[in-house]
Amino acid sequence: MSVHFRKLALIGIGLIGSSIALAARRQGLVDVISIATRRHDTLEEARSLGLGDIYTLDASEAVRDADLVILCAPVGAYGALAEAIGPALAKGAILSDVGSVKEHVLKVVGPHVPEGVEFIPGHPLAGTEHSGPSAGFAELFAGRWCVLTPGPEISPSQTERLAAFWRAMGSDVECMDAAHHDMVLAITSHVPHLIAYNIVGTVADLEADTKSEVIKFSASGFRDFTRIAASDPVMWRDVFLTNRDAVLEMLGRFNEDLSRLQRAVRTGDGPALEALFTRTRTIRRSIINAGQETAAADFGRPHDTPPPVEPLIVRDHGGGDDA
Amino acid sequence: MSVHFRKLALIGIGLIGSSIALAARRQGLVDVISIATRRHDTLEEARSLGLGDIYTLDASEAVRDADLVILCAPVGAYGALAEAIGPALAKGAILSDVGSVKEHVLKVVGPHVPEGVEFIPGHPLAGTEHSGPSAGFAELFAGRWCVLTPGPEISPSQTERLAAFWRAMGSDVECMDAAHHDMVLAITSHVPHLIAYNIVGTVADLEADTKSEVIKFSASGFRDFTRIAASDPVMWRDVFLTNRDAVLEMLGRFNEDLSRLQRAVRTGDGPALEALFTRTRTIRRSIINAGQETAAADFGRPHDTPPPVEPLIVRDHGGGDDA
């Protein structure tokens, strides 16, 4: 048995779904790609991009005879989707997903998985702030982690088969318990997104004059936050609705630390501030060393070159006189 | 009078100072660059990089006969520096700086500025997370704002002369009141940095096992924050010590909003979450339209290509059997 699948069904075709379609095709991992999505215009967009072979608005139609089915819709839609496709899933198929939370997914999808189908939840830790079928690209998963959270009833050979599929798209694969995944992701992803959304929201509430200045001068730090806070709203709503406990736990720690930091600013505690700011620098170095980030300054953002030297003569004022 | 200066003295030669040296030289804006810094090894590093013409540990020596002097040291050092160089400043010289706060700078430097010298505080809104003389590059200021905060006693012709110098290095220049600068920067820069330092600090306090997983899986959002939280610790300590009131005011707003958002997560208020997450998306679009950010996904970070297609045969398991 090779990593090859006969028919891949993608239920949902946003950034992640379309990237899987492109990567699986390019790497020759599947014969047929079947795409289902809820909205007609999204389906037509996928068709015009040539992402698959079969296009349908009926998810249960899409999964027929598929040996690999991946849910790529917002997590909030999983329960209804699983109920709809459950009876149509082929015996021996692997059912997986790409959702950002995993315990909730086991809970809402699990009951609808028929005997003979192996449900192996997955989460590729990859994405950009863009969404929709046209946002995908085949390189999205290269060098990024994909976490699988198979239950104890899943055969290791099937997990390995799915892992090989992800590795072939460039991912590194790690298996862990669903609850542990949700806790780690609350820290690395969910709370950072919440914080970014919050600060951008604070700015959005400023008076119009100030807001336009903030936008103008955003390159001094704020704009980094806006990238994260430009991620897909429905997907992120569902993350916070379905990983509440882990998010609130980590947010509690963040708030405690922020109170302490606020006090250090208020009391002018220079040594405490400098100590924190020095400690945080080493974390970034670790991330770069772990190959999860570019060492290039400013994320490797493009920097313009200065304009060519012009005849830089300005008005000839008398020294110190007003113009 | 042209934009040309005979002798530029840079007091401090970190990321910003070294970038000014490189940009001013490349654009032919000065004849002589004189560099002073407090530490011997930093001075030697600047010398080995060929950043200037004159190198000294004595700031008052560096400014002698200079017609443009720019303080590029941490703001906390300004008072002592101004006291030291004040008597040595040449009549007719322009004294400026690059510090991230401006009211405080007027307060601590102003009293040491002798008659006949024009003190025009400045702040280039440019930088990366790297620091030190070797971090500088001539393109740093291209397409970035430089804010000048001249007092009412400064002649517009001198302000224009300094503005032309920054424009020649690629900056757009804006003049504003020092207090207004400090408020706008508290929002766009200081509070975002504080938040980023805080969340990275929260992670730094996690148990070793969890921390290593957070680093491993950081690409899911957290790593963006670490870039900001890797900025120069002493510079940022001084920012929070000297722009306290504006920072605490904005931090108060951020905290109010975060409490409300936390409640929305706790009560599972999906519509409120989705509404905020949709609203914040438009702010990023405005920043991209304002030319302050790249529209490329993920800041234009490099994405690897997936590995070449390999003979993707895995072990031949019987269907469903354990390996």
UniProtKB/TrEMBL annotation, chains A, B:
The protein's annotated pathway: Amino-acid biosynthesis; L-tyrosine biosynthesis; (4-hydroxyphenyl)pyruvate from prephenate (NAD(+) route): step 1/1
This protein's record includes keyword Repeat: no
Enzyme Commission designation: 1.3.1.12
GO biological process terms held by the UniProt record: tyrosine biosynthetic process
Catalytic activity: prephenate + NAD(+) = 3-(4-hydroxyphenyl)pyruvate + CO2 + NADH
InterPro entries: 6-PGluconate_DH-like_C_sf (IPR008927), NAD(P)-bd_dom_sf (IPR036291), PDH_C (IPR046825), PDH_N (IPR046826), Preph/Arog_dehydrog (IPR050812), Prephen_DH (IPR003099)
Keywords carried by this UniProt record: Amino-acid biosynthesis, Aromatic amino acid biosynthesis, NAD, Oxidoreductase, Tyrosine biosynthesis
Domain of life: Bacteria
Top enzyme class: oxidoreductase
Domain (Prephenate/arogenate dehydrogenase) ranges: 6-295
Annotated GO MF terms: NAD+ binding; prephenate dehydrogenase (NAD+) activity; prephenate dehydrogenase (NADP+) activity
Family: Belongs to the prephenate/arogenate dehydrogenase family.
PANTHER family reported in the protein's UniProt record: PREPHENATE DEHYDROGENASE, PREPHENATE DEHYDROGENASE [NADP(+)]
NCBIfam families reported in the protein's UniProt record: PRK07502.1
This protein's name: prephenate dehydrogenase
